[in-house]
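Researcher: Sequence recovery benchmark, item below. Answer with residues only.
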């Protein structure tokens, strides 16, 4: 009897049920590589929390967990190293007065259309190889949209509070950011920006028409409709989004969560920063090459190591992981240290996850194995072993097949095609400090 009950209500089964549900269009506000499917936080939130509880994501990315938490009237706390990701999450979780917004949208579009002031050089953002990525008329139109957003509330008396004005201006900036890749020379079919043969050919044959204002207008209307459909007005859940490094948090500063739902970066993971570099430049989150590089190096699992970083083998406190590091290091010193560093950095985050949770709180994590220099690394199992040393017990571990073919890409030059992910579930049983 209990066997049947367990089978019926296994977490895997509950996730499958959740996958069949309708998802909010807020999730597609902005392209983001490595997004969680919303059913994962949705099923975890419904199973492990109640209304008013706190849900946390230490790798919040574009805010999938935070949006699902808010839709389910849970408070949410997200940490994320990439400033543009925090910005996307903020806009996706902010309620706006959509009637007012619709009125203002038309005024903004009129301002942009009527703008015939020339674009000055100093209005163009810092963007490496700007001419390569954007045609001159595209640059001009993007500046015009941006400048009219920036000046919008100076020009028009709206009767809105300072906060409401800022929230709407941020929404407009997100709309702009969401079209940057589409109007650039970077092929939207590729994960990393690249002016592909396909696009070059289309350009040579005059078959690609880039309509910047139309793209902006369409995106503006589409996202306004999404906000109308899923407004959070009746919900009073709080959202805290911190642009910080999850290895170094002052965890005690925050409300304790009932649940953590996350998908951590992968070993030698896709270069998240690179996938969003055009948006980071245009939306002025990055002003120099040094800033760009420094952000990349803070990404857990990154493979931007200098020669001095792999002169000596990086070891971890875990025998099993050290054997893997040694094996990979032997084949390629840099890759070996990418692996060693990954597990050391994830250890810091796991300790923080313990501190962020209430006693008996849960972690639901999507993770997949990696292959580094042909060496298979069972990341989910190894992280579960580490979690066992820092106050967690393993509750469940199951395969979640990736159905969407477009996600079946090689994650980088080191790893193979990934056809499934694992869902791991842990429960906090002790304070990490006491371990
Ligand atoms: C797999 S993505 C998460 C995507 C997210 N679940 C979503 O649905 O959009 C992993 C995220 O970890 C972030 N990240 C990497 N290193 C980090 C660090 N040291 N601290 C905080 N976030 C980090 C990356 O910027 C990336 O957004």
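Model:
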């Amino acid at each position: 009897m209990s066997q049947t009950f367990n089978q019926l209500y296994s977490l895997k089964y509950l996730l499958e049920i959740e996958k069949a549900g309708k998802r909010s269009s807020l999730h597609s506000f902005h392209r983001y590589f490595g997004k969680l499917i919303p059913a994962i936080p949705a099923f975890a939130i419904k199973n492990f929390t109640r209304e008013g509880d706190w849900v946390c994501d230490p790798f919040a990315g574009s805010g999938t967990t935070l949006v699902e938490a808010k839709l389910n009237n849970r408070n949410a706390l997200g940490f994320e190293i990439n400033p543009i990701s925090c910005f996307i999450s903020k806009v996706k979780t902010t309620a706006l007065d959509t009637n007012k917004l619709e009125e203002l949208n038309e005024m903004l579009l009129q301002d942009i259309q009527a703008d015939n002031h020339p674009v000055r050089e100093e209005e163009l953002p810092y963007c490496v190889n700007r001419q390569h990525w954007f045609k001159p008329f595209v640059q001009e139109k993007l500046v015009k949209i941006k400048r009219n957003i920036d000046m919008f509330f100076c020009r028009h008396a709206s009767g809105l509070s300072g906060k409401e004005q800022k929230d709407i201006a941020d929404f407009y900036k997100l709309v702009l950011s969401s079209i940057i890749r589409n109007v650039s020379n970077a092929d939207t079919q590729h994960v990393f920006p690249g002016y592909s043969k396909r696009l070059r050919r289309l350009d040579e044959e005059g078959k690609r028409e880039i309509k910047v204002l139309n793209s902006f207008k369409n995106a503006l209307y589409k996202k306004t409709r999404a906000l109308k459909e899923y407004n959070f007005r009746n919900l009073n859940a709080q959202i805290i989004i911190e642009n910080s490094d999850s290895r170094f948090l002052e965890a005690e500063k925050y409300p304790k969560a009932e649940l953590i739902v996350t998908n951590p970066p992968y070993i030698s993971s896709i270069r998240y920063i690179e996938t969003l570099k055009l948006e980071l430049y245009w939306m002025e989150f990055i002003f120099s090459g040094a800033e760009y590089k420094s952000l990349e190096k803070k990404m857990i699992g990154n493979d931007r190591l200098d020669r001095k970083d792999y002169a000596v083998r990086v070891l971890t406190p875990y025998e099993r992981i050290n054997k893997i590091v040694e094996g990979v290091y032997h084949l390629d010193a840099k890759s070996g240290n990418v692996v060693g560093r990954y597990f050391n950095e994830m250890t810091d985050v796991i300790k923080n996850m313990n501190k962020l949770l209430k006693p008996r709180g849960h972690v639901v994590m999507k993770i997949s194995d990696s292959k580094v220099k042909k060496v298979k690394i069972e990341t989910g199992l190894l992280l579960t072993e580490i979690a066992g040393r820092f106050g967690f017990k393993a509750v469940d571990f199951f395969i979640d097949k990736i159905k969407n073919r477009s996600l079946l890409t090689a994650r980088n030059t080191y790893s193979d095609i990934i056809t499934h992910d694992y869902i791991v579930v842990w429960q906090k049983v002790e304070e990490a400090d006491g371990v």
